[in-house]
Design goal:
The structure holds two protein chains of two kinds.
Chain A (H helix, E strand, L loop, with lengths): L3 E6 L4 E7 L1 E6 L2 E6 L5 E5 L2 E6 L5 E6 L2 E6 L2 E6 L2 E3 L5 H17 L6 H24 L2
Parallel strand pairs in A: 1-9
Antiparallel strand pairs in A: 1-2, 3-4, 3-6, 5-8, 6-7, 7-10, 8-9
Helix pairs in contact in A: 1-2
Chain B lengths: L3 H59 L17 E6 L9 H13 L7 E6 L1 H7 L6 E5 L8 H16 L5 E11 L2 E10 L15 E2 L3 H76 L1
Parallel strand pairs in B: 1-2, 1-4, 2-3
Antiparallel strand pairs in B: 4-5
Helix pairs in contact in B: 1-5, 4-5
Classes of the chains: A alpha+beta, B alpha/beta.
Chain lengths: ~140, ~290
């Protein structure tokens, strides 16, 4: 199968730089797949799961908390706010973050930034879901 | 002429100072390496971000539209904000003095009514808090370490000030790291964003999903954060480099001082011995 270059970068570091067969990412309007020779595209990403198919049938899972996907000239670049390999997610921390966001959204303290709290809630939820997924599938 | 004991005491004190400056030099060298590595690692993101933005802008320009985002809005400047990035701590040579001098030069033509300051780093805060131009933002105690969450918050605050009309132009003044022995004081406009250069090399007819305006809304806050981050990261690297050089110089001067003092000590010791000998010889002569 044809491959293309994928790089995933966050403001802190480059997470991944690899030849891949296809990826599935959480685009602004739902999950979308990108294979080799895809048309040029720019889309924001939602918090969600990135599935990467490497040549030879290996599959990688990453949690992403938002960002962008750009595809051009048979190269895909993901600019993620934060991205982690599913195996490296700190589930306990994600649970704490989820509880904190949940509590804030419930209590509605004075001057609460609802958008930010909601975003934090969704990010934590996403990370937990992906961490669990990898436990179940036993990667 | 100071006594032998005085000289000895001075040598000891200079030597302990030298040990401290030497340690600081080594610490700064390690921190510099870390800061450089960090800047290196975050570069791909920043470069790609610029590229996407320029692609997006040229695609919109081609379609005959104007860029649909408030960060690009040029309006008559009634209030100017200067963001000054200094270090939190001293002992880094003329690093902060140069930055503050440049900031003062910039602010010379402004009055407290049409200018304000946002200081990142304690040195800038301390200097300007007693001066007429109001300091509206104080961000200190980074300790020369990058803190992405904080930088994001600072960038967001500034963007809000600009969009709400509290200020009409934001400039950022920082030291750009060039080499270990050189930094360049850089003044660049932060907001409104100057028209983006169109890229010619990386042309592509993009599909925008959902549409350019929505992508801009998502992209721009991240873009300004990235620019702020780059500036602060550069400044931290430059600070560590400046401190390393300053401390290296101090260690060397201390070494020279010890040499001079040691010479003085030996001379004093020798003349003391000579004097004693003369006394003994004189005494023996007298007994004859």
């Amino acid at each position: 199968m044809a491959t293309y270059q994928l790089s995933i970068a966050t403001p802190e570091e480059t997470i991944l730089e690899e030849m891949v067969e296809s990826i599935i990412v959480p685009g602004a309007q739902g999950y979308l797949g990108v294979m080799a020779n895809h048309a040029a595209l720019i889309t924001p990403l939602q918090p969600g799961k990135i599935t990467i198919h490497l040549p030879g049938g290996t599959e990688l899972l990453l949690a992403v908390s938002g960002g962008f996907l750009e595809v051009a000239h048979n190269r895909a670049t993901i600019l993620a706010d934060a991205a982690e390999h599913a195996t490296k997610i700190d589930r306990a921390r994600a649970v704490t973050a989820l509880d904190r966001a949940d509590k804030r959204l419930r209590d509605r303290p004075e001057g609460l930034d609802v958008d930010r709290a909601t975003a934090a809630f969704r990010r934590a939820q996403n990370r937990i879901r992906i961490a669990d997924e990898i436990l179940v599938s036993g990667h | 002429m100071p006594s032998l004991r005085d000289i000895k005491r001075r040598i000891r004190s200079v030597r302990s100072t030298q040990q401290i400056t030497k340690a600081m030099e080594m610490v700064s060298a390690a921190k510099l390496r870390k800061a450089q590595m960090r800047a290196e690692r975050s570069r791909p993101y920043a470069t790609k971000m610029e590229l996407i933005l320029s692609n997006l802008s040229s695609a919109i320009a081609q379609a005959g539209g104007s860029v649909p985002h408030p960060y690009f809005e040029q309006r008559p400047v009634r209030k100017t904000t200067l963001v000054l990035v200094t270090s939190d701590r001293g002992l880094c040579g003329s690093f902060n003095a140069n930055l503050i001098r440049r900031a003062t030069l910039f602010l010379k033509d402004y009055t407290p009514a049409n200018a304000e300051l946002v200081c990142i780093g304690k040195r800038g805060v301390d200097w300007f808090k007693k001066r007429p131009i109001p300091v509206v933002g104080r961000h200190q105690d980074f300790g020369g370490n990058m803190d992405f969450t904080r930088v994001r918050r600072i960038a967001a605050e500034l963007a809000v000030r600009f969009v709400s009309g509290e200020t009409d132009a934001i400039h950022i003044l920082y030291a750009k790291f060039i080499t270990t022995s050189r930094y360049e004081i850089t003044l660049s406009r932060f907001l409104p964003i100057e028209s983006v250069q169109e890229s010619s090399s990386h042309r592509a007819d993009y599909i925008f999903e959902p549409d350019p305006a929505a992508i801009f809304a998502d992209l721009m806050p991240r873009y300004v954060t990235t620019r702020m981050q780059t500036a602060i990261a550069e400044s931290f690297a430059a600070e560590h480099a400046a401190r390393m050089i300053a401390m290296g110089g101090a260690t060397k001067s201390a070494g020279e001082m010890i040499d001079v003092l040691t010479l003085q000590f030996n001379k004093a010791r020798q003349s003391a011995i000579t004097k004693e000998l003369l006394d003994i010889v004189g005494g023996a002569e007298a007994l004859k």
